[in-house]
C-alpha cells in the first residue's frame, strides 16, 4: 500500500489514541491528578483490584453490552433486510430512525415511567431491553448501507436454481451483508458500553445493576479516581491483546 | 451453548442479588467506602449503596418511579423539600434516631424544615470565593470581585453553573434573597451574570479546585468543602465569604415513603449520626457536619482548613436555598438565557 | 419477496421499537400539552403554552447554535473519516478487521475519562500548548479549551469511529471493476473519485453524517466539560428541563420539536436520494 496512505492512517490513529496515551500515562501517575506528575507508581492498579465495586460494575457492563449487541444484531439485521428487499413506507423508515435521534434523557425517563406503569421490576434486564432499542436502529442503518447496490437478481437467480429460502439466506445474502453486520455490532457494543443515562434510569437500585459508566459518572462530584484510568488502560490493553491473538490464530489457520 | 450462557448469566446475577434490607443512594465518595459493612456489623441490618452523580438525576429517577427500590436518599435541601411536596417522603420518627441529640440546636431548627420532620441534615456549609492569595493583587471580599473582576484576573475566573448557585451569586451581589421570585430582580441578576460571562474561563462545578492548584484559575466560585481540597494541595489557596453574604447549603438524608423497611432506614440514619461515623466525613471529605459532638471532637482540623472552624451561629445566619415553587420556570429560563448567551 | 415473509422479517424490530420506545414516548410527549406542577409534577390542563415557549428567541437561538456545531462536527468527521475508511479498505484483507477494531478500541474506555484526557491536552497549560511553546511555534498559550473549537474537536473525536465503520461498510460493497473501467476510459484519480466512488459510497457517507449530526446535537457532556458550560446546546437544554427544572412538559415539547425537525430532514434526504438514483 502506498506510503502516503499509510501515513494518513497513522495520523488518524494518532488522533484517536493520543487521549488514550494520556490515560495510560495518568494511570501510572502517583499524584493521580492530571495537572501534576507525582512520580511513577502502580498504586492505582493495586487499588483497582481491591475495589470490588468497580469489578462488579465492569462485569455488569460486559453482560449488558454483550446481550444487547447479540439481540440487536439479529433483530436489526432482520429489520434491515426487510426494509431493503422490498420497498417500505415512510412510517417504517421513521420508526427505524427515531431511536437514534431521540435525546437519551427522553428515552430514559419515558422508559422508566413505562416500566413503572407496567410494574416491571428493574435490574440489568431492564437496561438490556432499553439498550436493544437504540442498538436495533444503529445496526439496521449500518447493515442497510450494504444493501444499497445489492443486486436482487442474485437472490432470484438462487431461487431459480432451486435453492430454498434459508439456503439462499445463508449462502448468498448473509455473506454479502456480513461486514455490515459486524460493523453494526461493533457500533452497538461500543454504544452500550459507554451509555450511562438510560442505564441509570432503567437500572434497579443497588450495585447488582450498576454499570461501569454509571459508576464513573457518580464519581464526578468527588473526583473521578485514578483507579478508573488504570481500569481503562487494562481494558484497552486486554482488548488489544485479544485482537492480536485473533490475528495470530487467523494466520495459523491460513497456513494449515 | 445457549443454555450454558444463560446458566452463567443467571448465576452471576444472583450472586450480586443477595437480598439487602435497605438500599441507599448517595454520591460516590461522600461516605466511607465500607460504610455498609460497618453498618451491618453495628446493627445487623444489611444495606446496599447505590450511587447518583447529581441531585437532578436521582430526582428524575425517583419522580418517574415514585421512589421504587430506594429506602434512603442523600439529596440537597431544595430537592428534599420538593420530594416532600410531591408526597414521596416518609416522616422522620425521631424516637428511632436517638443519635440526633448530637446535633447543634441550630441544626434542629432549619428554615426549610423546622424540627427536621422530613429530612435529617448530613453535611452543611457555605458558598463563597476560593482563590489563590499569592496570585491576586488584593484579597477579594465581595461578589463583585468575581462578577466584575480586575483586568489581571479576566479569563482566570470560574463560576458554578448549577442553577441555584449561579443565580445566588448574582442575587446576593445585589442584596437580594437567594430565594427571590420577583421577575425584575431576577432580570437584574441575569444581566449582571451575562456580563460576567465574558470574563470567565469556564463554568465548572467539579474540577475548579484543580484549576486553582495549577494556577489556570485564580479565583473561583466555590463550595467551602471543595475549597478545602484545593487548600490541601496548595496552602496559598484561601476561602472567603463575600461581605454581601452566602447561602447555607445543606445535604440531607430522606426516607422514601414507598420504602418497606422504614425501621431499618431509620437505623441507617441513626448510624450516620453517630459521632465517630460523622467524624469520617469531617476528616475525609473536609465538609462540616451539623453533628456537634463530632465537630468538637475534630476541632483541630480548623487549623489546616479555616472554614471548618466557622461558628454555627455564623453558619445559621445565612439563608438556606428553598424550592421556589411556581417561580421554577422563570429560574430555568433565566439560567438558560445566561448559559446560552 | 412476498409481503408476508417480509413482514416477518421486520416484525421483531418494529415491535420492539414500538413497545419499548414509541409507546413510552407517546406518554411522555403527551405531557407537552400539559403544565408543570408547582413542585415538579404534572398538572393536567391541556394547552399549547409549551409550544409557544419553544419558539421564543432564547430556545430558537440554542437550536440553531446546536445545529451549527453538530453540522460542522459531522462534516469534519466525514472529511477525516472517509480517507481513513478508504485506506483501511485498500489494506490487505487480513488486516482490515484488526484496523477496524483498532478504530473502535479507544471507545471502550469511558466517555467521561476520554473527555478529561482532552481537557488535559487542550488546556492552557496542557500538553499541546506546552509542546507548541517549547518548539517555539507560539509565544503564548493558544486558547483552545473552553471554546467552541474544543467542543467540535471533542464531538469529532467521539463519533469518528462511527463514520469510519459506516463508510467502510459501504465502500467494501463497491464494485472495483467500475474504478478500473473509469481509469481505462481515461479518467484521472480525482474525477474517478468524485464521479464513481463517492456516489457509490454515498449511503455510507450519509449514514455516517447523520450519526454524527444526531449524536452531537443531543450531546450534553462534551459542551459542558470541553466548552466550559459556556455553549448551551439543545442536549443540555432538554436535559436541564427534565432534571434541573423538573419541567417535563416543556422538555417534552422541546424534544418533540427536535425530533420533528430531524424526521423532516430525513424525509428531505430520502427524497433527494430517490431523485438522484
Task: List key phrases describing it.
heterotrimer, A: 256 residues, mainly alpha, MetI-like fold, 0% strand, globular, C: 277 residues, two-stranded antiparallel ribbon, 13 helices, 74% helix
Overview of the structural elements:
The complex is a heterotrimer of chains A (256), B (341) and C (277). Chain A has 256 residues and is mainly alpha-helical. Chain A has a domain at 51-224: MetI-like fold. Chain A is built from 11 helices and no strands. Chain A has helices at 3-27, 43-50, 52-85, 90-101, 104-117, 124-147, 152-160, 165-194, 197-202, 212-218, 226-255. The longest helix of chain A has 34 residues, at 52-85. The mean pLDDT of chain A is 82. Chain B folds into 2 domains: 2-124 and 249-308, Periplasmic binding protein-like II (D-Maltodextrin-Binding Protein, domain 2, 3-Layer(aba) Sandwich), CATH 3.40.190; 126-247 and 321-340, D-Maltodextrin-Binding Protein, domain 2. Chain B is 40% helix and 17% strand. Chain B has helices at residues 2-16, 35-43, 55-65, 77-85, 143-147, 163-173, 183-197, 208-214, 224-233, 262-272, 275-285, 292-297, 312-315, 328-340; strands at 22-26, 47-51, 72-76, 109-110, 113-114, 120-132, 157-159, 200-203, 219-223, 237-240, 247-255, 319-320. In chain B, helix 6 packs across helix 7, helix 7 runs parallel beside helix 14 (328-340) and helix 8 (208-214) packs parallel to helix 9 (224-233). Chain B starts with a helix and ends with a helix. The mean pLDDT of chain B is 90. Chain C has helices spanning 3-30, 49-54, 57-90, 93-104, 111-122, 127-135, 148-171, 176-184, 189-200, 202-217, 221-225, 234-243, 248-276; strands at residues 35-36, 42-43. In chain C, strand 1 (35-36) and strand 2 (42-43) form a beta hairpin. Chain C is globular, with a radius of gyration of 23 Å. The interface between B and C is medium-sized, with 36 and 33 residues.
